[in-house]
Amino acid sequence: MKVSDILRLKGNALFTITPDEPLADAVNIMADKDIGSLVVMEHGDLVGMLTFREVILVVAGNGGSVGTTQVRKAMDDHPVTCTLETDLDEIRRIMLDRHARYMPVMDKRMLMGVVSFYDVAKAVVDSQNFENKMLKAYIRDWPAEEEDEKS
After folding, report:
1. Total H helices, total E strands in the chain
2. What predicted TM-score, i.e. pTM, was given to this entire model?
3. Tens digits of residue pLDDT in 24-52
4. What digits encode the pLDDT tens for the residues 115-135?
5. Which of 105, 120, 140, 142 would disulfide-bridge 112, Cβ 3.0–4.6 Å?
6. 115: left (phi over 0), alpha (psi -120 to 50) or beta
7. Rounded to an integer, what distance in angstroms lies between the CA atom of residue 54 and that of residue 52?
8. Which CATH homologous superfamily contains domain 3-142?
9. Cα–Cα dist 74/52, whole Å
């Protein structure tokens, strides 16, 4: 399974923000849309990733408030990315190695979507469930031995 398969099932809703917007606006968007990340875009280019992890770090550093912080100060400015052709096993390895819960999907310089750790876990479970159904169907349809062959 490839990232393109996950995005096809997930849909292509994308939520972005610019780096010069207030972090408070980003938090409001994330809360309103019930999402855990925003892709930070500037002049059509991916320049960062903002997740709840970065927001929490700012809140902790500011005594419980985002204050007047801009997205640029909070974002991960070197997010790990993948392509539509990246294999599911590779995505799992990268996400685990880098502790990345969200990964932008790029096609050259074009943002195609975001894959979350949840999306990857769901794809794995769905794939395993499908394999289990196929194996059970195969076992159920196993050819029975003829009675006269046993004698």
Report:
1. 7, 6
2. 0.79
3. 999 999 999 999 999 999 999 999 999 99
4. 999 999 888 777 766 677 777
5. 105
6. beta
7. 6
8. CBS-domain (3.10.580.10)
9. 10
Q: What residue ranges do the domains of the chain occupy?
A: 3-142
Name the residue type at position 103.
M
Task: Tell me the pairing of strands 37-42 and 110-116.
Answer: unpaired
CA distances to 57, 67, 108, 128 from 64, in Å = 10, 9, 39, 42
Q: Which of 30, 13, 12 is nearest to 21 (CA)?
A: 30
Whose CA is closest to 3, among 129, 104, 75? Answer: 104
Q: Which two tokens stand for residue 70?
A: 């801009």
Tokens of 25: 């606006």
